[in-house]
Amino acid sequence: MNACGGENSSIPQKCQDSDDDFAPSKLGTKEYWEDAYKRELETYKDIGDVGEIWFGEESMERIIKWMKKQSIPENARILDIGTGNGIFLVELAKHRFTNLTGIDYATSSIELAKSILQEEGLGSVKLQELDFLNECEELGEFDVCVDKGTFDAISLNPEHAEEKKRQYVISLKAILRLGGIFVITSCNWTKEQLLQMFSPGFELLEVVPTPTFQFGGVTGNTVTTLALKRLS
Residue 3's pLDDT is what? Predict the structure, then answer.
């Protein structure tokens, strides 16, 4: 479940706006993602195309490079929140991380991810169809949690978006151990906005560099990636 396209694709809603609120969108609904991944699953079965890689391959590479730089153990328990097609899990496994779990609330997403992982010979990676906001207690505790666009999608939910954002933080604290690391990539929220929404309880470890653009003499970022540490 993700709200934005890859770094080189067109993004379906305004990103990095200075406003605190976003207009409700179908991108925030389960029905949208069920249909989207159902189409991607059919395409994968037909021609073997894994579908959209959210924020691009470079985004995955940057996160994994950062994790390696932090000397995160290869057996660390890692959760991919809103796994989509599961490609990030594939890349983590290729870098020898061994204790991987992906969750998504879309049945078609989990079916697609399972097909791709099996094709890659990665049947040991755990996949679970699960609503992170309401069923996270089933997951246990993790050392690292990664979100590439799922919090963005939740922010666009047509019903009770503010409540859902607050519940996301509660759910995250329920499954990320004290001292654990949360890496979030967003095309909707700035560094300052994310830090506000995830505090108290988290501190900034590092801003993971992302591509910049220039327009009218002003330099900005198309996406924001933060590494946060859980304090309480």
Answer: 55
CATH superfamily of 26-230: Vaccinia Virus protein VP39 (3.40.50.150)
Q: Is residue 107 within 8 Å of residue 132, measured between CB atoms?
A: no
Structure tokens at 169: 């933080």
DSSP string, 140-167: --EEEEEEESHHHHHHT-SS-HHHHHHH
Query: Does the predicted TM-score (pTM) go above 0.85?
Result: yes
72 φ/ψ angles, rounded to the nearest 5 degrees: -65, 125
* pLDDT (tens digit per residue) in 199-215: 999 999 999 998 765 55
Cβ 16 vs Cβ 221: under 8 Å: yes
Count of CB atoms situated within 10 Å of the CB of 225 = 22
User: Do residues 168 and 151 touch, judged by C-beta distance below 8 A?
Assistant: yes
Q: Are 13 and 3 in contact (CB under 8 A)?
A: yes
